[in-house]
UniProtKB/TrEMBL annotation:
GO terms for molecular function: rRNA binding; structural constituent of ribosome. GO terms for biological process: cytoplasmic translation. It comes from Thalassobaculum litoreum DSM 18839. Coiled coil: none annotated. This is Large ribosomal subunit protein uL6. Keywords: Ribonucleoprotein, Ribosomal protein, RNA-binding, rRNA-binding. One of its GO terms (cellular component) is cytosolic large ribosomal subunit. InterPro entries: Ribosomal_uL6-like, Ribosomal_uL6-like_a/b-dom_sf, Ribosomal_uL6_a/b-dom, Ribosomal_uL6_bac-type. SUPFAM superfamilies: Ribosomal protein L6 (SSF56053). Belongs to the universal ribosomal protein uL6 family. This protein binds to the 23S rRNA, and is important in its secondary structure. It is located near the subunit interface in the base of the L7/L12 stalk, and near the tRNA binding site of the peptidyltransferase center.
Amino acid sequence: MSRVGKYPVAVPDGVTIEIANDEIKAKGKLGELSAPISAEVDVVHQDNVIKVTPKRESKKSRAMWGTTRALVNNIVTGVSTGFTVNLEINGVGYRAAIEGKDLVLALGFSHPVRFPIPEGITMNCERPTAITISGSDKQRVGQLAAEIRAFRPPEPFKGKGVKYANEIILRKEGKKK
């Protein structure tokens, strides 16, 4: 069983924490984020450290202990340093470009795929085959990366498609005569 909840969350300089009702708010140089606090756990902020402890010894309390600690860590990290996901595009003629507030992808379809860039998220294309997605909210950054990858996931024979930069595609052998 994981013991993520027992580790305290360090609060870096420049981040202010506010705990009220069933919500924790963090404000830093990259914006402001909030996360819900489960009724099964206690969250205490003292000496630039946030500690999460379960209220009871039930299975639900222990599950929410680690979950709440992870959510708190994600908002503290998000407002201080942010999160980044890198995507790579493989395939002849496959490319990406930023046009205004849209990400335009050429992925072998009869038309270019236009993906609007939401508020609070920044996307860069250093090369036509690399996309960098950054933002303060880990869930939104990961979700946008997954949505872009879903337009043309990598196929196992040639590896063509959109993949995460650190993803390893298991290749299959083609047909034999």
